[in-house]
Each structure stands twice: as C-alpha cells, then as structure tokens.
Amino acid sequence: QVVFALNQTLLQQESLRAGSFQIPYTTEDLIKHYNCGDLSSIIFNHDTSQVPNFINATLPAHERITAQEIDSYFRQELIYKRNERMGRRVKDLLEKYPDKSFFFAFGAGHFMGNNTVIDVLRREGYEVEHTPAGQAI
To answer: Per residue in 7-49, pLDDT tens?
Structure first.
C-alpha cells in the first residue's frame, strides 16, 4: 500500500507539472471561503480534501480496491480520529474550567469535510460561531 500510494502521488505530481491535471480549487479559494466563514462550500465538503486522492476510474480493479483501502485508512486515522481527539480536548477544558474564557484556533484542515472539530463540539451540545477575519472578539 505504501508503494502504491507513493507511485500514485508521484503520478499526480507529474500530471500537475505537465498541465494535464488541474486542482479544482486554489489555495486562494480555500482562504477566501475560510475567511468568509463559508465552511459549507463545496471546497470544504469533500471527505478526502485533506488527503491525496488515489481513487480513479482508470485503475485496474485490484488497484482500485487498494486505493479505497488507503483512502478509508487516511480518512479514519488522519481526519476523523484526530478531530475527535481535538474536540474532546476542547470539551474537557471547557468543562474543567467553566468560569474561564478560552480562545481556540485551528488550522483550516480541522474544518474540512465531515466529522470536523466543529461537528464534534456540536454533537456535545456546544454552539460554535465563526468570527470573520478582522472582527474584534
């Protein structure tokens, strides 16, 4: 799986460099949507937006299965479990120090796709609000 993932990543990079593969959105698009609080945009709703996309229709069946296994592993281990841990840490701090004020800052990756840190906190009953860039807190 590691060799397969490495080969697929290198192929994607070569395609990017050759101009035959285009990323559907730019870093500027991510920043704009993030700053505007538009976390429901199509950019932020891809489950695999934080990990390389190894699944494509041109792969032979056995390689497509390998790609799906890797994608599932990345999504579960690197995204969902990480966001669960971070959400629990925030919740634990809020419960341990109910009379304190907190400011939590996360990278944009924690707001992308499903099962985000915000989703974890909302499931725990917390109300989460976006503060736009430049707005006083």
So the answer is: 877 887 788 788 876 666 677 776 777 677 665 555 555 444 4
User: What residue numbers bound the domain in which 73 lies?
Assistant: 1-124
Amino acid at 107: G
By three-state DSSP, how is residue 87 classified?
Answer: helix
Tokens of 111: 């707001």
Q: Is 34 helix (H, G, I), strand (E, B) or coil?
A: helix
Count of the separate structural domains present in the chain: 1
**Residue 110 domain-assigned (yes or no):** yes
CA gyration radius, the chain = 18
Over the stretch 61-77, which tens digit does the pLDDT of each residue have?
888 888 888 878 877 87
